[in-house]
Amino acid sequence: MKYLTVGDLEDCLLNKVDLRRQQISQAVEEVQKVVHHLTTNISNQDIRFQAVPYSDTYNENIKVLAPSQFLVTVPIKGLAGYREAREQHWRYYTLQGTRLPCPLRDPEGLQQWLEVEQFMKSLWQWHETDVNIDGDIVPAKVLLVFRKLVENAIRTCHLSGKVSLLGNRSAVWVAVETSAYQVELELVPTVEIPTTWSKKARWPRCLQRWPSQERVECIKSFGFNLLACSNYHWQLSFLRAEQVLLEQLDEDGGCRRKCFQVMRHLKEDIWCPGNRPVITSHHLQTVLFWTCEKYPHFKDWQVFSKAFLRLVRKLHKCVSQHFLKHYFVRNSNLFQCTNPTELDTVAQKLATFLKNPQVGPP
């Protein structure tokens, strides 16, 4: 059996990277047609949810986490003029409407409360009890409303043969049959907060040399999102900011993007394959950002083999320690809720690769 060294990986695997891009593009094309159809119907049912637009180029509402796992952010309407909460207070409510003797735990890391009064303008529907408790817009209640709308939309749009709602999950997941394979989508109601940067994201760090200060200001101008994907707390997301960072990686002519693409291919084919992998493209992207920040100079990204192995070593360290800091909110561990046994399996595969960086043909 012929093996490929890291020196050979660049040419061989970049061909496979191109093939992957074509396959993913086709899947995204088919998925976004379905998503646009569904969410248009949902928006007609409930004005609080906006249709995901169809795009001939990049669709910022669809994030590919793995070839068969997409994150779809569904914009929320009727909330404008966001401002940070002025004061903190205890919450004693439950989702069922009963009162607790002790307060709910405070949000941590990427989490936060969301009060309707934090918006200068809001539709009256956001004050209704189907989504609001004591002035808080509660993500679990938003998801409950949204799930029913998705179920109705699948039936109304006659998509039952192509789209199925996946049960037994707190979040809203659907399976979509594409021409090549099945894709699972997490549909997440999302509050988009443009032009405002979250106070929780204390970025950039002191003496940071990558990206440039000009680029930092540009990235922060894209604001952030709040995702409804848990019971009481909204989750901070920086999808637009991260996409801008990715798009402008190699303006100096380096090989950062190439290293990322090859690492993603090996992750999907060898280190962590499967429909719901414990390591996603977002994890790899975060590892890339941290490595770019530590090695900000062009000379560090001239030689593919050296740069690629440096990136894999960083990934191995994070997976082995079950710890990967979010790039913008550094007190949040992206591996906090992942399966430690699965992480250990990936770490072992990465260690084997690093001892002898060769890849056998499948």
From TrEMBL:
Gene3D superfamilies: 1.10.1410.40, 3.30.460.90. Residues 255-351 form the Mab-21-like HhH/H2TH-like domain. Residues 58-248 form the Mab-21-like nucleotidyltransferase domain. Pfam families: Mab-21, Mab-21_C. Belongs to the mab-21 family. This is Mab-21 like 3. It comes from Gorilla gorilla gorilla. The gene is MAB21L3.
